[in-house]
Amino acid sequence: MVPNDKKVTDLCQKMDRVPLHALPMNAILCDIVAWMYFASKLPATSIPAAESQELLAQASSNVACAKAVRSQVWWESQLAFAHSLLGTPPTHEVPLHFLTLPVNRAGKQNGVVTHQYTAMLPGGFLFNVKPPVGLDSLQVVGPAGYLALRAREVDEVHLAVLISNLCGDYFCLPHKDACAYFKQPLCSTQTIAQLARSFSAKPLGIKRLITTMCYVANNAHSPMETVVQLALSLPKKLGGCGLPTPELNATIEVEPKLSYLLGGSKAIKPDGLWANHHLVYEYDSNQEHDENKNQIRKDRQRRDVMERLGYTVVTMDSTICKDEVRRNLIFERIANILGYSFDWSGQAQIRRRNLWARLMLTGMCW
């Protein structure tokens, strides 16, 4: 495989004329290693397009780079997380995944996986991170760049889960059976769309990424918010209900009189909202609602206020979601309010069942 872009080829030829000892040593993290870095919550700085392409032209993928990255504290702290995603025991070595041009590949090396990329990189594809001793610089593919790469390798359902995760404010930690939360989402569908459309030529997977984004909402706050939203919005051929994408955790302003019923709160943020239809849905999690009388009271007051404001409120919980018939009846009700039909055929149910099973493994996607 050779670069198919003249600008990339020119850069490669330029690099061939520079003595090896004069080249800076840099590496670009990708694949599950990038996912590990995202989970670490460490800072990263976006890189402009021109600089990104120079860094890709110089990027190395070898044992020396891997050794340098493995020396970092964040790497060690995220190993249990990586093992849980990979389904491997602690004794199994987690490989380093690096992004390079094809001409920079050093051949097969133990503990190193090289990913080749020949497209011209847009701004925001790469981010600078603190390099370890042994490297002059270290980059990680940013959330939008990560999706552009993964779109080449995964199907629409897997890709939709990844988009929802990176455009939400939570990160699943399967090794702890918990979630880590961010002050704000790592990315947004608007940022992803901007990057996807910035490629001068559309690389493999970009069309799939652009199409799949339409089914995903920003601002998911939990794995079940991702599950329910995608079950509702993914197309019927994939097992979804084919409904319009709702807004997640959008703000509904509350007038002062009703604010009193909310203990002074001036706004409500339902899990899902179709503002034009005055329809909201809420998912009550076991963790927050079981045997928590204060939470139950607050939820009742929230729903009372939303109904006073003219909204139809549909409620789901784990009991409903585990029961296919009850879950389908809820989905049918939402579909009918939005003016859509619900398919009760056997084939449609098989697709919905298969999709639900996959979505319930949201925390294992990377």
Structure description:
There is one protein chain. The strands form five sheets. The protein has a four-stranded mixed β-sheet. The two termini are 26 Å apart. The chain is 42% helix and 15% strand. Residues 14-22 have low confidence and may be disordered. The chain has helices at 6-16, 31-40, 49-58, 63-70, 73-77, 79-86, 143-150, 156-166, 189-196, 206-213, 223-233, 256-259, 286-289, 293-308, 318-322, 324-337, 346-359; strands spanning 26-29, 45-46, 96-100, 112-116, 126-129, 137-141, 170-173, 178-181, 247-248, 252-253, 267-268, 272-274, 279-284, 312-317. It is an alpha/beta fold and 366 residues long.
Briefly say what this structure is.
This protein has 366 residues and is an alpha/beta fold. It has helices at 6-16, 31-40, 49-58, 63-70, 73-77, 79-86, 143-150, 156-166, 189-196, 206-213, 223-233, 256-259, 286-289, 293-308, 318-322, 324-337, 346-359; strands spanning 26-29, 45-46, 96-100, 112-116, 126-129, 137-141, 170-173, 178-181, 247-248, 252-253, 267-268, 272-274, 279-284, 312-317. The chain has two domains: 6-141, no CATH class; 220-360, no CATH class.
What's the arrangement of secondary structure elements?
Blueprint: H1 6-16, E1 26-29, H2 31-40, E2 45-46, H3 49-58, H4 63-70, H5 73-77, H6 79-86, E3 96-100, E4 112-116, E5 126-129, E6 137-141, H7 143-150, H8 156-166, E7 170-173, E8 178-181, H9 189-196, H10 206-213, H11 223-233, E9 247-248, E10 252-253, H12 256-259, E11 267-268, E12 272-274, E13 279-284, H13 286-289, H14 293-308, E14 312-317, H15 318-322, H16 324-337, H17 346-359
Parallel strand pairs: 1-6, 3-4, 13-14
Antiparallel strand pairs: 2-5, 5-6, 7-8, 9-12, 10-11, 12-13
